[in-house]
Amino acid sequence: MATASSFARRLGAAVREVSLKKGAGGWYGPHMAAAERAVLERIPLVDLVVEVRDARIPFTSAFESLRQRVCSHKHMILLNKVDLANRSLTEKWMKHFENQNRLCYGVNAHNKDNIKELLSIVRAKIKELKVGESTYTATVMLAGIPNVGKSAITNSMHQIGRISAAEKGKLKHAVVSPQPGETKDISSYKIASHPNIYILDTPGVLSPKIADDDSASKLALTGTVKDSLVEECKLARYFLAVLNSSEEYKHWENLKDAVDDTLSLNSREKLMAGCHTDQKRRRQYSSDHTQDITWLRKSQASWLGIFCLQLI
Ligand SMILES: Nc1nc2c(ncn2[C@@H]2O[C@H](COP(=O)(O)OP(=O)(O)OP(=O)(O)O)[C@@H](O)[C@H]2O)c(=O)[nH]1
């Protein structure tokens, strides 16, 4: 019987094969090369670089070329999507990065308290970096591979950050999407006043040289490359193999109960009504899909987006 690792190899090989395909068939075209250059060129110009990683794959989701260019004192690692990851492993990873002299914090971009805490960590770090300067404006760059949640974090920090009422009235919105590669340009958003702190949201960058099939399969499963670039059945097989080999398959039971409850209230119609309400709600709040559990693949969320799994 095929194991998770054999499915991972097949999926990973498919992902690596498409990496350098030209046009819509691949992901690393001239646009991504230009984005990578623009991000790397900004490193010396910003005060702090926050490398956003996916908490489910804290090692594999590294932005390698950035890591090699930014010095440790102005490099922070932010593990996002902690709500989808294994909590105790996330804590271990945070300690691991701190031991490497990197400031590290774990967040759920959609959690207000997490974002408030992140804002105070960033403010304190900037204060430390600017010690001796009485007035200043600081810039923080969020960078990382596609779909790790940079724009979602940007929006939350911009909305929750301490800025004037007039500025709150003119809030900007970064595009948040379950599809990777939606952010096309570098944009600035204010997150604090006195001193002024701005955050730069940047396009996701994924090197075409993925180390091995195993890493490539993890990236595909967590939504770093578009599902349509690899055969979706390969993704589905790997996803189910991972699920079967972990305790997480028990979630299927809960899901079944939830659907049974709905059906026992008489009704396929109710199920359909729920679906319509859900779609209406999505139209209203188009920025956040991966929180939804009930309508599994309808939102195009990544395969792992709906389960709490850790792949490393
Ligand atoms: N569950 C969960 N979903 C999240 C979190 N952060 C972001 N997301 C979702 O992940 C998806 C990608 O988020 P984006 O903010 O668009 O990611 P990005 O890094 O800006 O993507 P690119 O444009 O490819 O660079 C969206 O569906 C978000 O709603 C989080 O902390 N938890």
Automatic annotation (TrEMBL):
Record keywords: GTP-binding, Hydrolase, Mitochondrion, Nucleotide-binding, Transit peptide
Keyword Nucleotide-binding annotated: yes
Top-rank taxon, per record: Eukaryota
Record's bilayer topology term: Peripheral membrane protein
Chain sites annotated for binding GTP: N80, K81, V82, D83, G204
Primary location class: mitochondrion
Biological process terms in GO annotation: mitochondrial translation
Xref: CDD domains: YlqF
Localization per Swiss-Prot or TrEMBL: Mitochondrion inner membrane
UniProt cross-references to PROSITE patterns, sorted A to Z: G_CP (PS51721)
Pfam families per the UniProt record, alphabetical: MMR_HSR1
Molecular function as annotated in GO: GTP binding; GTPase activity
Gene Ontology CC annotations of this record: mitochondrial inner membrane
CP-type G domain span: 37-208
InterPro entries: G_CP_dom, GTP-bd, GTPase_MTG1, P-loop_NTPase
Family as reported in the entry's similarity comment: Belongs to the TRAFAC class YlqF/YawG GTPase family. MTG1 subfamily.
Protein's UniProt name: Mitochondrial GTPase 1
Gene: LOC103704684
